[in-house]
Design goal:
Helices cover 38% and strands 17% of the residues. With 551 residues, it is an alpha/beta fold. The structure holds zinc ion. Zinc ion binds at residues 35-36, 76, 79, 306, 353-354.
């Protein structure tokens, strides 16, 4: 009898812990990608953030201080795919925003899909799907594990920022249509827009934003973390004489409208982030995300930080202003989640798809290494060299960080592909700013564990990638040729820390406040979520759970 009681007690206790464990599983995963967000934006602007946005995430959440991308190219498509699949382009196949496809004899965009149609508009801006993505995402795993009851919804201004996080089996991905200022999708996901999306579009928020100007949030002299408003390092918008506030959209939109581009003003301003946040909140309400029995996922990607970041650079008043406003968007989102889903019922992560280089000319003018590599000139010299050495022919099909050689012609002329790859790699090394070159053969045959070679290898997909790969000196930016325009604005894509070092923050359900300085990679995010949600890992995941969150 006594023994029976004991057993009964144990059974009850076990049942109790099981129920408890189930209760603790979050109802909603909120993934936030801030396109082009550098790690230092958390702290350079810290004192100016409010209490309910970034400061709340940092004050109550967990920050990996030394989190990095671990492959090249550090670009948007690969970044979104890598965070949600927990692996790198070598495995998930998104080797760039676009890449040359030998069979098609042209470059393809990472989310293009001519077999699907736009839903929500008559334009072609919705001929997109995740068909190039070779691995499952954390959302796919949620869908599989719940017998498809979990909902996965994704929103971004950029199509790739919405599509890749939603994975192959996402319920919906919505992105911004530049032609109309509306959110659209494709028939990969659905045959018509849900009523709530139509209603959202009917508010014509984009037009309302165009009727307003973009003025700084605070008096301009209070932007103390940035250079002057007018610097030679910023691009100047069409219709403006100087890169300065205010951005009079009411006036500029008339000039832009002549080419049907007026909504680009919205996507390159803080209003693009407002749109994504509002649409995200509408998705929570109308799809009842996190309000059912299963764990749902909402993926938001804020693209405007990147579009403006390229134009104005990390030391511009414009970028400081965008982040102060993004801080408010995040505060509003958290408030909404607390109300609708409930504090403790959702887990949020925030990261970026890559960071960005300071404007090289700005660095140069301040005694810090930085420069421009005129790749256009280097590639025309490469062509001359190849013609001289191997005879007349179009030897390079697609130049860039990765160079695609004309393998068909090389075979026809009985030339060794490996030899030509090695020739090209050696030839390019002579040019100023080119630091290292590798061939596809190097990346295929060797197993690199450290440094730039290892980073390149993780971005190398044997079937899809090119023949020769280039790394520039640190803080050198590739340009076609150096012009007055090319020294304004900046970019990303390199294996260096200014492009790889991004915030990784977890916040919400079961997340203990804390930090780690251990080096983690962004491929660790999806495995961490898989452990939190008791899921099978995404199919090609190579990252490791961030163990400090479970200790
Ligand atoms: Zn990006």
């Amino acid at each position: 009898m006594k023994l029976h009681l004991k057993l009964l007690l144990i059974v009850f206790l076990l049942a109790g812990t099981r129920v408890q464990a189930q209760n603790k599983t979050p109802k909603l995963v909120v993934g936030i990608m801030v396109d082009q967000m550098r790690y230092d934006y958390l702290f350079r602007y810290y004192n100016q953030y409010g209490n309910d946005g970034f400061k709340k995430l940092l004050g109550q959440g967990f920050l990996a201080k030394n989190a990095h991308y671990n492959y090249v190219p550090t670009a948007t498509g690969p970044g979104h795919a890598s965070v949600y699949t927990g692996t790198t382009p070598a495995n998930h196949g998104i080797i760039g925003n676009s890449w040359y496809v030998r069979a098609k004899k042209r470059s393809i965009n990472c989310v293009e899909d001519s077999t699907v149609k736009t839903v929500g508009s008559a334009s072609l801006e919705g001929s997109n799907s995740p068909q190039q993505l070779l691995a499952t995402t954390i959302g796919d795993q949620l869908r599989l594990a719940s017998n498809w009851r979990s909902k996965v919804v994704s929103v971004s201004v950029k199509n790739r920022g919405a599509i890749l996080p939603a994975g192959r089996a996402g319920n919906a991905a919505y992105w911004f249509e530049y032609k109309t200022g509306n959110f659209i999708t494709s028939n990969y996901y659905m045959d018509k827009l849900p009523g709530w999306v139509k209603k959202f579009n009917d508010q014509k928020l984009s037009d309302k934003f165009l009727a307003q100007d973009w003025k700084p949030l605070k008096p301009i002299n209070q932007y103390r973390e940035s250079a002057n408003d007018d610097t030679p390092y910023e691009r100047i918008l069409t219709g403006k004489k100087k890169p300065t506030f205010p951005y009079e959209f009411s006036k500029l939109s008339k000039i832009y409208a002549k080419r049907g581009h007026q909504y680009r003003l919205v996507s390159g301003s803080p209003y693009g982030n407002t749109l994504v946040r509002s649409m995200g909140m509408a998705a929570i309400d109308n799809e009842k995300l996190g309000q059912g029995n299963e764990t749902d996922m909402l993926a938001l990607s804020f693209s405007s930080t990147d579009i403006a970041g390229h134009a104005y650079g990390p030391h511009s008043v414009e970028i400081e202003d965008i982040y102060l406003r993004l801080d408010r968007e995040i505060a509003q989102l958290i408030k909404h989640l607390d109300k609708k889903v409930g504090k403790g019922n959702y887990v949020m992560f925030l990261t970026a798809d890559h960071a960005v280089l300071n404007v090289p000319q700005y660095l140069k003018d301040n005694k810090i290494p930085g420069n421009y590599a005129p790749l256009g000139i280097y590639f025309s010299k490469l062509n001359e060299y190849l013609v001289k050495k191997y005879g007349v022919g179009k030897w390079v099909l697609s130049p860039g960080y990765q160079i695609f050689l004309n393998r068909k012609l090389i075979a026809e002329r009985n030339i060794s592909l490996e030899k030509m790859q090695a020739d090209v790699a050696r030839f390019l090394l002579q040019f100023e700013g080119i630091y290292k070159t590798y061939t596809a053969n190097d990346l295929h045959r060797n197993n690199y564990t450290h440094g730039i070679a290892a980073i390149m290898q993780k971005g190398y997909n044997q079937k899809r990638s090119g023949d020769v790969f280039i790394a520039l000196n640190p803080s050198w930016l590739p340009v076609g040729r150096v012009t007055k325009r090319s020294v304004r604005g900046t970019s990303h894509g390199s294996p260096y820390t200014y492009d790889t070092h991004v915030p990784v923050i977890f916040y919400g359900a079961n997340i203990k406040k804390g930090t780690t300085v251990r080096k983690v990679t962004i491929t660790d995010i999806a495995p961490t979520l898989a452990m939190m949600l008791n899921l099978q890992l995404p199919s090609a995941a190579t990252g490791q759970p961030i163990h400090e969150l479970f200790d």
